[in-house]
Design goal:
Elements: E1 6-11, H1 16-26, E2 32-38, E3 60-66, H2 74-80, E4 84-88, H3 96-104, E5 108-113, H4 123-128, E6 131-135, H5 153-160, E7 165-169, H6 177-181, E8 187-190, H7 192-195, H8 200-211
Parallel strand pairs: 1-2, 1-8, 2-3, 3-4, 4-5, 5-6, 6-7, 7-8
Length: 218
């Protein structure tokens, strides 16, 4: 059975002006967006600081925090009040109390798994959260190739927690989005295939149309 899959644009930038431009362009065609924030420790790059992050009130914002110590960002996250906050299983601290604080504030929780992280090794986190993000690109950048071998994690996660929302992040584009949509995912986050497109709205619609096609997917 093919699940309903959502294409979710992702914003990753280190520039306030570019951030505003991306928000304004995306706001024309969708309401669910992933905001990527990096710390330069867990990641090789540093994005716009989380204190400069914002989004329209009508958005369902997924905040993807790529940080070694997410507890240092907790107060700001609570003030921003995203719909979903995704933290990395590879963080250098226990995520359990952070997830508890987010849930208490009514914020959905997610855990992201880098390519080397086996789902079974972080089952305790998966049991706690609303969303599991399978990361298959290069952390802290857009435009990297997708490691499609990461799709093997999807049934493992689904078997652990059938009702959890499963997302994909990394290298999704028109060449692979239909295969991803047929892999039992719920969300496909898309970065450069939308943000770098001449017409982001048209690129988004093309991706949506592609995942709705039937027939051979690979």
């Amino acid at each position: 059975m093919i699940r309903t899959v959502s294409i979710v644009p992702a914003i990753l930038t280190d520039n306030k002006q570019d951030y505003r431009m991306q928000v304004e362009r995306i706001n024309v065609f969708t309401r669910r967006v992933q905001i990527d924030v990096t710390d330069g420790v867990l990641t090789p790059t540093v994005t716009l600081d989380i204190t400069n992050v914002w989004w329209p009130k009508n958005w369902d914002a997924d905040l993807h925090l790529m940080a070694a110590k997410p507890s240092e960002y907790l107060d700001t996250i609570l003030k921003l009040s995203p719909s979903l906050c995704i933290l990395h299983a590879e963080a250098s601290e226990d995520l359990t109390p952070i997830f508890a604080s987010l849930k208490e504030a009514g914020i959905k929780t997610g855990v992201a798994l880098l390519p080397a992280t086996f789902p079974g090794a972080v089952k305790s986190y998966i049991d706690m959260v609303d969303h599991v993000l399978v990361f298959a690109g290069q952390l802290g950048t857009q435009g990297s190739a997708a490691d499609l071998m990461q799709m093997e994690k999807i049934p493992l996660i689904r078997n652990m927690k059938p009702e959890v929302e499963i997302g994909w992040d990394g290298g999704a584009n028109m060449t692979n989005v239909r295969a991803l949509a047929h892999a039992d995912l719920d969300v496909i986050n898309v970065g450069s295939a939308i943000s770098k497109a001449e017409n982001p709205a048209a690129a988004f619609q093309e991706l949506v149309a592609e995942i709705d096609k039937n027939g051979v997917v690979i």
